[in-house]
Design goal:
The protein is an alpha/beta fold and about 290 residues long. It has 13 helices and seven strands. The chain has a domain of about 80 residues. Helix 4 crosses helix 5 and helix 11 packs antiparallel against helix 12. About 35% of the residues are buried.
Length: about 290
């Protein structure tokens, strides 16, 4: 192709650059979140983040719609919100055109909360609120309702996912949507008790090498979280969020609060949780997972 013809080729549209762009998505919001440049071009560095958020939105929207249909209102708390990509995009796509519903961003870093508050004001997202608070403070924060319908945590690092679960349990959340990240606590406890564990079972070979300890610890952490949720009356589904080429932190935990105990399922899950802690010599984590 000649240089003259190349010059005549029109620039790709935003839809061509980003085929997964959702109908009704505010371009101005994507610019404010730096997913698009000020000229409206796709910022490749954040495209991966947007794909992850979009995938998560696909899981969350039906849950919000279910609650809204059942009771005529819906609240969502995004725990460890960070820059609030998820909260803003959910508000833009689901809440913006409705007369009801609230989104709360819970984040301990005050500077990020201030930026999110300013952005929500500029965009006219009146039913978004951002709180600079720890998980313990959030449990009794006067600006948060006594119950929250949906609790989310996207890539909440290490024990922050456990904090989100504790928050969801305390707020009697109907649904929890969790994408854990960088969990190291269980692996650290396993390293402390490695000698005793190795003497007890040949399966300890699964975490003899440091890399295996880290990976196995991460896996067991999420297993314990699922058992914890089931012990509190939730039905749990574990799946992939997006393709592994987009993120190595890719496990999605979906929890639905059940109306009944389904034949003693809670007690069985709690018993199995305690058995796993004992078998892996992790009893010191009982307070976190089994209380």
């Amino acid at each position: 192709m000649s240089k003259a013809n190349e010059k005549k080729r029109p620039l790709p549209t935003l839809q061509e650059q980003l085929p997964e762009l959702r109908p009704g998505q505010s371009v101005e919001l994507l610019k404010e979140l730096h997913i698009l440049t000020r000229e409206g071009k796709l910022n490749q560095d954040t495209r991966r983040k947007l794909k992850q958020v979009y995938h998560l939105v696909q899981f969350i929207e039906p849950l919000l719609a279910e609650v809204l249909k059942a009771r005529g209102d819906v609240t969502l708390a995004d725990h460890g919100a960070g820059k609030s990509y998820l909260g803003f995009i959910l508000y833009d796509l689901f809440f913006k055109d409705k007369a009801v519903g609230h989104v709360y961003g819970v984040e301990s870093r005050a500077e990020l909360v201030a930026k999110s508050q300013a952005l929500a004001a500029r965009l006219g997202f009146a039913r978004m609120a951002f709180l600079a608070t720890t998980v313990q403070q959030a449990l009794t924060h006067p600006e948060l309702p006594a119950t929250i319908d949906v609790v989310t945590a996207l890539h909440a690092c290490d024990t922050a996912t456990d904090d989100a679960i504790a928050f969801g349990l305390a707020k009697q959340a109907q649904f929890m949507v969790l994408v854990p990240c960088c969990q190291a606590e269980v692996a650290g406890v396993m390293r402390q008790h490695k000698a005793l564990s190795l003497s007890r079972t040949p399966l300890a070979e699964l975490w003899r090498h440091p890399l295996h300890t880290r990976e196995f610890g991460s896996q067991i952490t999420n297993v314990l979280r699922c058992l914890q949720l089931e012990a509190h009356g939730y039905s749990v589904t574990v799946t992939e969020l997006v393709g592994w080429e987009h993120s190595m932190k890719n496990e999605l935990i979906l929890a639905r609060r059940m109306a009944d105990d389904r034949g003693g399922a809670r007690a069985r899950s709690r018993e199995r949780l305690l058995q796993v802690l004992e078998t892996l010599n992790l009893q010191e984590l009982t307070q976190r997972f089994a209380v």
